[in-house]
Design goal:
The strands form 2 sheets. This protein has a 4-stranded antiparallel beta sheet with strand order 1-2-8-7, with no helix packed on it. Strands 3-4-6-5 form a 4-stranded antiparallel beta sheet, with no helix packed on it. The chain contains 39 helices and 8 strands.
């Protein structure tokens, strides 16, 4: 420092002292510390403004901050401070105008500067060179940045560790040019935007409560009667469980695109007065008059039995003919056993007239169908035999087409599909204009309808209507169309067909009341609740004891609820429960009352408040009853879904998952399937949150693997759950799946989830020593805005990876940067210093190698990391000192190296040989000889023992030669 500058400084300090003295006394000096990786900062806050001290090292573990005289007058010594967390600072005390700072180690450096108007900051950092301090050494002179000092010209050999300027701003990774891609290119991913294969819609309409009238299997159902002889309602006209919705080919929903209806006769086009609609009261049954008013009319002429039309008038003298007529009468009366006995006796008569025999055989075949209609499969042989015998009586009879139809239907009902097709094909090819032909299409329509193949059923019914518009079966075909369109969810088209039936056959409901149910279902689905109410009411009044009356009552409750008449809805629900407590309609009513309304498109948010205070019974019991007792009901899917939601509400997450999975397995194409998926996902996420909170990683992974539903829909899981699953995989040792779950979050732009996933992935790759993946991942995220600590950590990983991949030249800039980064953890910085030292050694930059290796040695020792690397760092120092000719230091370091080795190992023996070489280079012949002698004697047969003996022998020989040649 120049004299003029020093004088000006002292004048400034004197003025400050005077100002401080005039200000009076102040409070106590405050002391605080900040500790980082390998740096401690001491913050001193004075009670008044004053001068700045001269800072110098005054002892092996002591720094003095000497203020001008009187500057600290009035300052109270600082109170006790806690230095336990400090790495280097041990204590502070005040002695007059000097603040004494005591250190825990002598291997340190320091620097200080002002901190505001009344403060000072002293930063102490590790410096192995500090251990060489001695009083009077240059390092004992003031070392401070304030006041400014003149630069001291150091010898060219004086090196100091460079300090990397801190970069506190977030930003990208500061990486050297990375090598080309180190991993083979991955298979090209599937192209985005490719449409998925169209899923066939599942047409479930839970709010349509249509019961299956036919409670038996198809082979036990009543036989269809094209001749109208059986007056019981045909199963062809009985409504089945509802399906869902579809689209008319070609769009638009116009009826003409679905079926071409034949014209309505003008005489039937007008409206007709219907029976009055009288809702049943709470405490009374519907008046029987309603049923009387709607009594069925006598069969129309076109439905008269074909066999009756062919029977000639009975003559008294014709006993056989009279017996035939009597048997037919018994059949019409339902006495099939009596008719069977009469006909069998009759046909045994060998003198029976041909026309009577023909009539009797065909009638007998029909009776066999009647007798065994509930078990056609069990009596298939005898029924088929009777039909074939009837045909064989007269193969040219006009009755043959009808019998062929019966044979086809018999085989169809028992599942002999090839035989059924054969009989139907004979009928349609040989008798294309016969009145029985339309029944072939109708029979196939019923077959497909019963098996849920509604699109095929629609085509068959459509053929009846379009191909045979004048057939007496066109009404049944139209009826089949209507009910099939209901099952397909095409209610607007179904409504048009129902209207056509109503106008062409306005009294059809008196003959077949089920048409009212179907029409009511159609109106309900189309939102015409008043028309639906009228249809259901009329149906109930006509058929109060119908086997699906329970469903009609429940549906009427739904209608009144939708019309805003809650008391009326409750009345109908209670009536259904009272009369049919265990039936489907009764269960529906219980469900409605428990849920306080109609909830046929349930959501979790909608159902949870209702579940909090159920109004009627246990929702779970109701749902399970419907699923268990009415599995084929259209209400069963809805009950299954609501049960899953109920269990979710009860926090039974495994149960909710199980029921959701069962729903999707049974009804994969249902319109409510997305709600089941949502319920399952919610249940899994809540279960996962509980398991993660309790660190139950094994169970979480097991649950994820168990439920294929969750695996299939894992894209619906929240980010929190996906990352939690990744953590669970990581904790259970399945790092491959952990990376699989986390990697999608490592994208082109950084996010909090992406940072978490990146950290996890880098940790896995480092533990697995997967250096290539580390470099590739760093390349992918290089442009992210990292915090300083994140950036340091990732750059360290990249440097480590490059070093292990043999890319030392690319890693060197990163190691150099980190070697001077005092904010980098010592556990990492020691490696950076080591690799820089190693590179300097390779370039024969001895002083630099010695400096960096010394710092690395110190940090390896302090952190306890990598003993082998520490030995290598000491080794670099030894060889650098030897190269510089500093044999005294090299010997001291070699002796320290010996303490790091295990006696008897090769590196220990090799180091002893090096010590001997250094001793000889220093001229310490006695020390050299003693070292070699000890090695020779300790292990005479070892390599190094023999080498020591050889060196000693060569030295003795040389001495003798010298003595011989020395002048006397």
């Amino acid at each position: 420092m120049s004299l003029s500058l020093r004088a000006a400084l002292w004048r400034l300090l004197l003025a400050v002292v005077v100002a401080a003295l005039s200000a009076g006394s102040a409070a106590a000096l405050s002391v605080s510390t900040v500790t980082k990786a390998d740096t401690d900062s001491l913050l001193l806050q004075f009670s008044k403004r004053g001068g700045y001290p001269a800072i110098s090292r005054t002892g092996p573990v002591e720094i003095s901050l000497a203020f001008p005289a009187g500057t600290l007058a009035g300052e109270t010594p600082p109170g006790p401070a806690d230095f336990n967390s400090s790495r280097l600072l041990e204590g502070v005390r005040l002695e007059g105008d000097t603040v004494i700072v005591r250190l825990k180690s002598d291997a340190f450096g320091f620097v200080g500067w002002p901190e505001g108007d009344q403060g000072l900051k002293l930063q102490v950092y590790r410096d192995p060179a500090g251990a060489n301090w001695s009083p009077g050494a240059p390092s004992a002179t003031p070392s401070t940045t304030w006041p400014p000092v003149d630069p001291v010209v150091k010898p060219s050999s004086a090196l100091t560790l460079p300090v990397t300027p801190p970069n506190p701003k977030p930003g990208p990774l500061d990486l050297p040019p990375l090598p080309p891609s180190l991993t083979p290119s991955a298979a090209e991913p599937a192209k985005a935007g490719q449409p998925e294969a169209a899923k066939e819609a599942f047409y479930a309409v839970p709010s349509s409560m249509r019961a299956t009238a036919l409670r038996v299997s198809p082979d036990k159902a009543p036989v269809l009667r094209p001749d109208g002889m059986a007056r019981a309602p045909s199963p062809a006209l009985t409504e089945q469980p509802a399906g869902g919705k579809g689209q008319v080919p070609g769009g638009g929903g116009e009826l003409r695109q679905a079926v071409k209806l034949p014209p309505i006769p003008p005489a039937l086009a007008g409206d007709e007065t219907r029976a009055p609609v009288t809702p049943p009261g709470k405490d009374q049954k519907p008046a029987p008059a309603a049923k009387a008013e709607a009594a069925p009319q006598p069969p129309a002429a076109d439905h008269a039995p074909a066999s009756a039309e062919a029977t000639p008038p009975a003559q008294e003298e014709d006993h056989d003919a009279n017996t035939l007529v009597a048997a037919q009468a018994e059949r019409l009366a339902g006495n099939f056993f009596g008719a069977n006995n009469m006909l069998r006796s009759l046909v045994l008569n060998p003198k029976l007239k041909p026309d009577v025999r023909e009539e009797a055989m065909h009638t007998l075949a029909g009776v066999q169908m009647d007798l065994h209609k509930d078990d056609l499969a069990g009596h298939y042989d005898e029924v088929q035999k009777a039909l074939n015998e009837a045909i064989n009586v007269n193969p040219n009879s006009y009755r043959v087409p009808e019998t062929l139809l019966q044979l086809g239907m018999l085989n169809l009902r028992v599942g002999n599909i090839p035989e059924a097709k054969g009989y139907f094909n004979v009928l349609t090819r040989k008798y294309p204009t016969d009145a029985s032909v339309p029944m072939v299409n109708f029979a196939w329509g019923e077959y497909y309808f019963d098996r849920g193949e509604f699109k095929k059923a629609e085509e068959e019914y459509k053929n009846v209507v379009e191909k045979f518009p004048e057939s007496k079966f066109v009404r049944e075909g139209a009826m089949g169309m209507a009910k099939t369109l209901v099952r397909l969810g095409r209610y607007k088209e179904a409504a048009q067909i129902a209207d056509y039936i109503d106008k062409r056959w306005p009294r059809y409901y008196t003959e077949f009341p089920q048409i009212l149910r179907i029409t009511g279902d159609i109106a309900y689905k189309n939102g015409d609740f008043k028309k639906a109410r009228d249809c259901y009411m009329l149906f109930y009044n006509m058929e109060p004891d119908a086997k699906d009356a329970d469903l009609v009552l429940a549906k009427l409750g739904d209608i009144y609820a939708r019309l805003g008449n809650k008391p009326g809805a409750v009345d109908f629900y209670n009536l259904a429960i009272k009369d049919y407590p265990d039936s489907e309609g009764g269960l529906v009513a219980k469900m409605r009352l428990a849920e306080q309304g109609v909830h046929d498109q349930p959501t979790i948010s909608e159902m949870f408040p209702l579940f909090d205070k159920p109004q009627y019974g246990s929702p779970e019991e109701i749902y399970r009853s419907i699923i268990r007792d009415h599995p084929q009901s259209p209400l069963a899917p809805l009950a299954q879904l609501k049960l899953a939601m109920w269990l979710l509400h009860q926090q039974n997450y495994p149960g909710s998952l199980k029921e959701s999975a069962a729903y999707l397995e049974r009804y994969p194409q249902s319109e409510l399937a997305p709600k089941a998926e949502e319920t399952a996902i919610t249940a899994f996420e809540r279960m996962a949150a509980d398991m993660l909170a309790h660190k139950d990683y094994d169970r979480l992974v097991a649950a994820y693997k168990e439920y294929r539903l969750i695996n299939t829909n894992r894209g619906l899981l929240s980010d929190t759950t996906r990352l939690g699953l990744a953590l669970a995989y990581l904790r259970t040792g399945d790092t491959a799946n952990a990376i699989k779950e986390a990697s999608p979050y490592i994208g082109p732009k950084e996010t909090d989830n992406g940072n978490w996933a990146l950290t996890m992935a880098m940790s896995v790759y480092q533990n697995d020593r997967n250096w290539r993946e580390i470099v590739e991942l760093a390349r992918k995220v290089q442009g992210w805005r990292f915090s300083p600590s994140q950036r340091r950590g990732l750059e360290y990983l990249v440097a480590e990876a490059l070093e292990n991949l043999g890319e030392a030249s690319r890693a060197l800039p990163l190691w150099t940067k980190m070697a001077g980064d005092r904010d980098l953890e010592a556990e990492k910085r020691c490696y950076a210093l080591y690799f820089v030292a190693k590179e300097a050694m390779a370039k024969k930059e001895w002083e630099k190698a010695q400096l960096y290796a010394g710092e690395a040695d110190f940090m390896f020792k302090e952190t306890g990391r990598d003993p082998d690397k520490r030995k290598a760092a000491v080794n670099i120092q030894i060889e650098a000192a030897r190269a510089l000719g500093d044999f005294s230091k090299a010997l001291k370091l070699a002796e320290a190296y010996a303490k790091l080795c295990k006696e008897g190992d090769d590196d220990y023996a090799g180091n002893r040989m090096r010590i001997a070489a250094i001793q000889r280079a220093m001229g310490d012949v006695e020390g050299w000889r003693a070292t070699l002698t000890a090695m020779r004697d300790a292990a005479p047969e070892s390599l190094y023992g023999r080498m020591a003996a050889s060196d000693l022998a060569a030295s003795g020989l040389q001495n003798r030669l010298d003595a011989l040649t020395r002048p006397q």
